[in-house]
Amino acid sequence: MTFDAFLFQSFGGPNVESDIIPFLENVTRGRNIPRERLDVVANQYRIFGGKSPINEINSAIIERLATAFLSHGIELPIYFGNRNFEPYVYDALAQMKEDGRKRAIAFVTSAFGSFSGCKQYKLDVEMARSQIGPDAPEVVKVRHYYSHPGFIEPLIENSVTALESLPEPHSAELVFTAHSIPRFMADTSPYLQQLNRAVNLVAAGIQEKTGRPHRFSLVFQSRTGPPNQQWLEPDVSDHLKTLSSKGVRNVVVIPISFISDHMEVIYDLDTLAAKTAREVNIAYARAGTSSNSPQFIDMIVDLTRELLDPTHNAKSLGGFTDVNGCSAVCCPSQPNR
C-alpha cells in the first residue's frame, strides 16, 4: 500500500476567548448540555487567557515531525485536522484532494483505544470523506501506541524527575490518572486493558530507575457526563483525600492518558488536584507528559514507517502490539440495548 500524505489529528481547542463557546458547543453537540454548564467550563479557559495550549503544542509537534521526516527520507506532506475546532479534519482532507493526494497515514493524539480516543476520529474522517465525494483521499490510522517506548520512556523519566522534587521521594505513591469515560464505553473497548498495561510498564520503569518499588494506583479525571450515568472512578481529587486519610504525605501524579500539557492537565491536575493536595497536606508533584521528548517524535516516525514498509515492525514494550484497525463490534457510541 502506498501513501502520499500524513494527517495529524487532534481534539482541537479555542485560540481566542471568542472561540470558547463555539468550541464547547462542538464538543457537546447532541448531548443536551445546558448553557450554564458551558459557561462554567468556559471560565476554566479564561483563567489561562481564553485559549487552549493544545494548538500551539500540536503545531510545535508537527514542525518537529516535519524535520524528522526529512532526516529519515519520508516524503509525506503533513496536514493538520481537528475534531472540534479549526482547522477541521474536513479542511485537511479537502486540501489533500486539491493537492492531488490519494492516501494518507493518520496519527491521532490519543494513545489508547476507545470510542472517543480512536473510533470517533475515524468516524470524523469518514464523514469528511463522504462530504468531499468519491475522490476523497483514503486514510489509514497508525496503531495504538500506548506500549511504544516513545510514549512510555519519557513518562518514566518525567516521573522520576517529579519524584526527586518531593520532600520524601522514597515514600511517595504514584497516582496514574486517565480521562474518565462512561462505563459502557470502557466495557466495549480496550481502554482499561491498555491503560493498565501502560501503568504497569511505567511503574516498572520507575522502579528500575530508582531502585525501589512505589505503591501505585490508576484513577480518573475530567468527567463530563450526567450524574446518573456511570463513569470510570475514582476521581483523582477524591483519591488524594483517601490517600491522606491513610497517612500518605507524598504523591506523584502521572497523566498516563495524555500526550501533552493541555487544558485537562494544566487545569484538572495542576490547578484542581494540586489544590486538593494542599488542602489535605500532601506534597504533590506532577510528571510531565511525553510529547516534548525527542523519543515521542521518533515514535511517530517509527509508526509511520510500519505502514510505509510491510517488513518494518514498530517498537513495543511488554510484547503488547495491537493490530491496526477496529473490529465490527468495538467501541459503540451507545450501550447495547
Can you put this structure into words, describing what you see?
Helices cover 44% and strands 13% of the residues. It is of the alpha/beta class. The protein folds into 2 domains: 5-141, Rossmann fold (3-Layer(aba) Sandwich), CATH 3.40.50; 149-286, Rossmann fold (3-Layer(aba) Sandwich), CATH 3.40.50. Strands 2-1-3-4 form a 4-stranded parallel β-sheet, sandwiched between helices. A 4-stranded parallel β-sheet has the order 6-5-7-8, sandwiched between helices. Helix 1 (20-27) crosses helix 2 (35-47). The chain is globular. The two termini are 38 Å apart. The model has no long low-confidence stretch (mean pLDDT 94).
List keywords for this structure.
12 helices, Rossmann fold, 337 residues, four-stranded parallel beta sheet, alpha/beta
Topology:
Elements: E1 5-10, H1 20-27, H2 35-47, H3 54-71, E2 78-82, H4 89-98, E3 103-108, H5 115-132, E4 138-141, H6 149-164, E5 173-179, H7 183-187, H8 191-210, E6 216-221, H9 236-245, E7 250-255, H10 263-266, H11 268-279, E8 283-286, H12 294-308
Parallel strand pairs: 1-2, 1-3, 3-4, 5-6, 5-7, 7-8
Helix pairs in contact: 1-2, 3-12, 4-5, 6-8, 6-12, 9-11
Summarize model confidence as the mean pLDDT: 94
Cα distance, first to last residue?
38 Å
State the low-pLDDT regions, or none: none
Radius of gyration: 20 Å
Number of structural units classed as domains: 2
- Helical content band: 40-55%
| H and E order | EHHHEHEHEHEHHEHEHHEH
Q: Tally the helices.
A: 12
The largest beta-sheet arranges its strands as 2-1-3-4
Largest sheet: number of strands, sense, barrel closure: 4 strands, parallel
CATH topology of the largest domain: Rossmann fold
Q: Got a strand count?
A: 8
CATH architecture of the largest domain: 3-Layer(aba) Sandwich
